[in-house]
From TrEMBL:
This is Integrase catalytic domain-containing protein. Pfam families: rve_2 (PF13333). GO terms for molecular function: nucleic acid binding. Residues 1-114 form the Integrase catalytic domain. GO terms for biological process: DNA integration.
C-alpha cells in the first residue's frame, strides 16, 4: 500500500502531463499503480527481487538524516518536517564532508569526477 505522501507525489506528477518523463523510486508493484505510471511514461526504479543490497546506499542516507537531523528536532507540522528534510538534503550534498569521498562533499566529488 502506498503512503499518503506517495499518492500525493503521484497525483502531482500526473498533472505534469506528457513529456515530463518523471522517475519514481517506489517499490510498489500494484497493477493499477503501474498502469498509471506507464500511461504517463514514468520510469519506476525498484530493487531486483531478493536483492535488498540494491537499496543499501539510500537506506544509509536515511539513517544518517535521521541521526543528524530528525531525532534532534521536534516537528509540529508536515510542512516544517518537509522543509527540514529539503534543507538537510541540500546541506548533505553541498556542505557535509564525507570520508568515503576523500573529504569532499557529494557535489564536489561529482564535479571532480566529471572533469577528470
Amino acid at each position: 500500500m502506498l503512503e499518503p505522501y506517495e499518492w500525493e507525489t503521484l497525483t502531482t506528477v500526473l498533472r505534469l502531463g506528457k513529456g515530463s518523463n518523471p522517475f519514481f523510486l517506489i517499490d510498489y508493484t500494484n497493477r493499477t499503480f503501474k498502469a498509471k505510471l506507464d500511461k504517463i511514461k514514468a520510469t519506476q526504479s525498484i530493487s531486483r527481487v531478493s536483492r535488498c543490497i540494491d537499496n543499501g546506499p539510500m537506506e544509509g542516507f536515511w539513517r544518517i538524516l535521521k541521526c543528524e537531523m530528525y531525532y534532534l528536532q521536534k516537528f509540529y507540522t508536515y510542512e516544517e518536517l518537509r522543509q527540514s528534510i529539503d534543507d538537510y538534503i541540500v546541506f548533505y550534498n553541498t556542505k557535509r564532508l564525507q570520508t568515503n569521498l576523500k573529504g569532499l562533499t557529494p557535489i564536489e566529488y561529482r564535479n571532480q569526477t566529471l572533469s577528470a
